[in-house]
Design a protein that fits this description.
The chain has 163 residues and is of the alpha+beta class. The protein contains six helices and eight strands; from the N terminus they run αββαβββαββαβαα. The chain has a three-stranded antiparallel beta sheet with strand order 3-4-5. Strands 7-6-8 form a three-stranded antiparallel beta sheet. A hairpin with a 2-residue loop joins strand 6 and strand 7. The longest helix is centred in the last third of the chain and has 15 residues.
Length: 163
Amino acid sequence: MAATDLIPRWIEALRSGDYEQAEGRLMKGSGSGKPGDETMAFCCLGVLCDIIEIGGWEYDDEEDEHRYAVDHSSSFELLPDYVQDRTGLSPSGGFNVPVRQVEVDGVVSFTSKQPGTYDYEQWRDAPLMDSLVEMNDDGASFKQIADLLDSEFDAIFEPTHRP
C-alpha cells in the first residue's frame, strides 16, 4: 500500500465506527486486538497502526497491555519508528502549526485557520492543541480528528513529512 493511500484509509477508519476510542495508549483492553472486539479500544494513532497492515499487536505480560510492534520497534503510547517513517508523522502526531478548538453555531471543531465568525480575541483565546495525541486524550472524537486530517492535513504537518 502506498503511503498516499494510507492517510485516506486512516480517515475512513476513524469515521467508520468500528473502533472504540481510548486515551493514554495506542490500544487498551484484554481482547484480540481486532476491530469489533468489544473489549478493545484505540487512540487515533492506534487506529493508524492497526490499518497499516505491517507488524502487529503484541501483549506484554509484564506491562499487562498491548503494544504495536514492527521492524524491531514497538510502542505502547507513541508511533513506532516504522509507522513514523511510513507516514512522516512525529511519534505523537505533532503539528507544524497550532490547532485550535473552536465552536461555531454550537459545533465544536478543530482548525489551524481562523473561522470568519471569530474575532481576533476569540481566536487568540481558543484552546490550543499541539498534537493528535493531545487532541485524542483531551476529548476530541475520532470524527473531529478525521475532519481535521481530511481538511487540513497539508496545513498542519511539515511539507517534508507528507506521504
